[in-house]
Amino acid sequence: MQRFLVRRILSMILALWGVSLVAFFLIRVIPVDPVEAYFAINQIPASKESMDAIREKQGFNQPLLSQYANWMWHVFQLDFGKSFVSKLDVGKELISRFWITFGIASTALLFVVILSVTIGVLSAVKQNSLFDRLTRTSIFTIASMPSFWLAFILIYIVALKWGLLPLMGWGTWQHLILPSLTLALGISPYYIRLIRTSMIEQMQQPYVLYARARGLKENVIVRHHLFRGTLPPLLTSLAMTCGGLLGGAVIVEIVFTIPGIGRYILDSMGARDYVVLQGFILLIGFFYIAINFVADIMCAMIDPRIRLKGEGK
Amino acid sequence: MKKLALLVLSFTLMLLVAACSNEQKSNQKTSKQEEASANDTLTLSWPLDIGAVNPHLYAPNEMFAQALLYDPLVSYGDNGEIQPALATDWEISEDGKSYTFTLREGVVYSDGSSLTAENVKRNIEAVLQNMERHSWLEAVSMIDKVEVIDELKVKIDLKESYYPFLQELTLIRPLRMLADSGFPEGGSTAEEIEAPIGSGPWILTDYVKGSHAEFTRNDNYWGEKPKIKKVIIKVIPDSQARIMALEKGDIDLIFGSGQLAPVEYQTLQQKGTYQTLISGPLSTRVLAINSTIAPTNEKEVRLALQYAMDRKTIVEHILNGLEEEAQSLFSPGFPYSDIKVGQYENNFEEAKKILDQAGWKMVEGQPFRMKNNQVLQVTIPYRSTELVHKEILEYLQSAWREIGIDVQLKAEESQIYTQKVRAGEFNLTFNDTWGVPYDPHMFIRTMIGENQLGLYVQSGTAISSEFTANVNKVIRSTDENERRALYEGILQGIHDEAMFIPISYRTNYLVANNGVKRLQFTPHQYEVPLSLFELEE
């Protein structure tokens, strides 16, 4: 297990370095730099001289490698720099917004797990029942709805017509429900199908047959054998979804007027605010890699074959 | 085991019922509180966060918020009349190079400090320190030095005479005044300010980034005090969400054409449950024609484009009647703009005749006109997010194809669009005027600036050198009659050379619930006149 951990941590660091390279250089491939973008946003007819003067002051005209080294040097000291547009500390701005988006994404994840495990397990156990057939049709309908549309329907019915939850904004737990539900509803159908199919497959396995032969109760078999067997693929794919949830939160944040990271990044992209974008890619990259790391370890704990694979060599 | 589960379940249910009834009570209480406070609080939506509200900087500081907090030395009145604000009086030297302002007595900032000549000097010098960002504005780049004459007198010397100086002082940014306590250590406002402390009609009393801002009436304001006690600005970036917030009663007012598309405005208007209002002309929706590249470098092609379009169709069907047809580059109500330059009527036959005479002929088997084996084709880039522009261009595409011109529309990301336009990669493109107090002088002036869109419009025409000389002359002129004559020549030249296609005069509009009274607009398109609104008793 120790060796497994060391190997995973090393590859994590390597991946993060790769992310930093992509973050820094890929952004600079996009046409229009922050200085030009700044004047364009403000519709100011600035001259080339004044733009060059600002570039000089900001160090945008130094060689790219030295700019990259300078940025990395500060990142190692956990200083992500200041936004070119707002002049605010990027690290602080990103983290404060990240928690909001993280709140939505993790609540959504909770919804996904609750919805897909209950519905998925039930429809596998009661295969081809009325319940199974009903869920199948309804999840296909929901899965094919665009998330912003789903969001408007939810807002219209739950918030505007019934007045049960706030329309938009941020601050209380009530504000969390509709946005997370919107996100979760879009993703859950996939997991419901995944769990159902995977459990039905497990049912054909010899160990389930032996368990039945041993006279174990049906719900013990479902919990300890069938469901446990679906966990490794479920965990890996949930870990991948975490990144998608953060990305999907952007649209939801706009519709529900939540000051999360998505809106901030969208604005920064329009303004070509390099420092903010670099910080964001690094942060999300780190988050993504960390989640996958945790998922790998959990899988290794559940399924000994994974951790033992490395030991043998 | 089962008994235990039952016990837990019933206990949870009890708790839930208790919690719900509690919540109901507290809900009732808050709605009563809201009712009590509703009459002195106006809530409106805004698509963006107001930013740090630094008076000396641009985005992400929102202009309307800067205008609520900070005052200029002089302000812009109806028909461009310069009116006293923080300065009650001003003297201009004979050569037009020196301005002496007498400051209003007894003006206090929201922190209790007084407005002094020293403070005005500090503000102007802070702006001058950040010259790279402000040099586009001549009111800033022209300033030579600022001198304190006495406690309430300040003199500004310019490098050259510049008639629009007072007009540019009325701008919302960057020349409005911040209290001394608002300056950060070191005194430079180029990066940040210590606190948004101004002398304006409102005080920023609460702010949650990305969520809302609360402005409270400044009871010590030197001018006419706002009638409403409190204003809450909610950040709502999506227009559908704004409409739902209005329907639910979360906001009282949606102000500005930037917040509602024409069709959304019309839908709300037709419901009949809201008050709706449209302003007078604020700026002009205009297509600029590039005179430096083929085929629009030919005057005949520019003329044909002018004749082959129907403004009425655009205004009625695309702009839903919310704007007026524009016949000139600037609305006649703007300074120096009440000039009859003539107009190009909608006349497709005339357009075809002009093209035929210029040698652009229809060839059999070809869909478009040709000359010397070249197809008559114009390229029009536009910002992909500008849906109204897209619709207008699609109409024009079909109209111009009817007279044999191939029209290529190119949707671009906003920044890339700006870059292309600055590089002159267009035949036509939207180039709306800026509205007062920028129009007409600043819009005209950019037409002679390097890398500017306007330069491509005039520099390929036959009158370019004369045009450039006249623009340089008009902004230096100190004689009112000479200025008027020069502007007349400039605007006539723009018309005769068919440099722009004016489409409509842009307006602002608002939708409000019935509790908001005295709804109105100011001539300034970036101002929200919250101080003038009232709430029903």
Automatic annotation (TrEMBL), chain A:
ABC transmembrane type-1 domain location is 98-299
Q: Which PROSITE patterns match?
A: ABC_TM1
* Residues spanning the membrane: 12-30, 98-125, 137-160, 172-192, 234-256, 276-299
**Any GO molecular function:** nickel cation transmembrane transporter activity
Recorded superkingdom? Bacteria
Alphabetized UniProt keyword annotations: Cell membrane, Ion transport, Membrane, Nickel, Nickel transport, Transmembrane, Transmembrane helix, Transport
GO CC annotation? plasma membrane
What is the recorded membrane topology of this protein? Multi-pass membrane protein
InterPro entries the UniProt entry points to: BPD_transp_1_N, MetI-like, MetI-like_sf, Opp2B
Q: Which SUPFAM superfamilies match?
A: MetI-like (SSF161098)
Which locations, inside or outside the cell, does it occupy? Cell membrane
Please name the Pfam families in this protein's record.
Answer: BPD_transp_1, BPD_transp_1_N
Concerning CDD domains, the annotation shows: TM_PBP2
Subunit info here reads: The complex is composed of two ATP-binding proteins (NikD and NikE), two transmembrane proteins (NikB and NikC) and a solute-binding protein (NikA).
Q: Which family does it belong to?
A: Belongs to the binding-protein-dependent transport system permease family. OppBC subfamily.
NCBIfam families reported in the protein's UniProt record? Opp2B
What is the protein named? Nickel import system permease protein NikB
UniProtKB/TrEMBL annotation, chain B:
Q: Pfam families, from UniProt? A: SBP_bac_5
Q: Which InterPro entries match?
A: CntA-like, Peptide/Ni-bd, SBP_5, SBP_5_dom
- Which PROSITE patterns does the record associate with it? PROKAR_LIPOPROTEIN
List UniProt keywords, sorted A-Z. Answer: Signal
Which segments does the entry list as coiled coil? none
Which example biological process does GO assign this protein?
A: peptide transport
Keyword Signal listed? The answer is yes
Residue ranges of every copy of the Solute-binding protein family domain listed in the record:
81-450
CDD domains recorded: PBP2_NikA (cd08489)
The protein's GO terms of the molecular function aspect are:
heme binding; nickel cation binding; peptide transmembrane transporter activity
Q: Which residues form the signal peptide?
A: 1-19
Any single Gene Ontology cellular-component annotation: ATP-binding cassette (ABC) transporter complex
Q: What is this protein called?
A: Nickel ABC transporter, nickel/metallophore periplasmic binding protein
